[in-house]
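Fig. S4 source data, part A: sequence.
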Amino acid sequence: MATPQPPHSSGPLHVSYVPHTPTEPPEAGARRFYETMRMRRSVRFFADRPVSEETIRWCVAAAGTAPSGANKQPWRFVAVGEPGLKREIRAAAEREEREFYERRATPEWLADLAPLGTGAEKPFLEVAPWLIVVFKLMRTDPDERGEQGKVYYVEESVGIATGLLIAAIHQAGLVTLTHTPSPMGFLSRVLGRPAHERPYLLLPVGYPSAECTVPDIRRKGIEEILVVRK
């Protein structure tokens, strides 16, 4: 099979690719990353220990390296550390959560949630030093003429970026939780975001409390999630 050639000079501008070249073989690097990530857990009990803004910036910068449809990068990350805003977000989130647990959720859904010990009260939204609210962009940001363009594969693109953000948070020695109060429109109002940005996910970020516990659950093994055809 012929080796693909880069585009001719008359085509789109390309630059030389600079590969990541770790000192260990691929098998060792992949296993080391797995050993790090296998310790990641969703945490609901946070310490009020401060986390620097620089740390949050680097984590979000890592998320921003994600691939996206047509390179439109349809994401916005709003980092909230101001106590009053966190309090307002908690109050609005808990109103939606009470509706969910008391009226919206089916009995089967509630039964599936029971082993996790979740409920309508969300104190971590105030205790965690940072909340990162992930928004998905339904159009590009306005250009200098106020015009907006299309975006593609928004859910997939923002999902990948969020996964990288969660991995970066864990790599920094911090913990988080994927919190999805539904509906989430209140986040746009509280944070004053424009109409083309829609809430996607809410991540409290910080250190675990000294008394932190997590549900005793198992993850599927590799033999359950991987199919190899060769």
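Fig. S4 source data, part B ends here. The longest strand covers residues 197-206.
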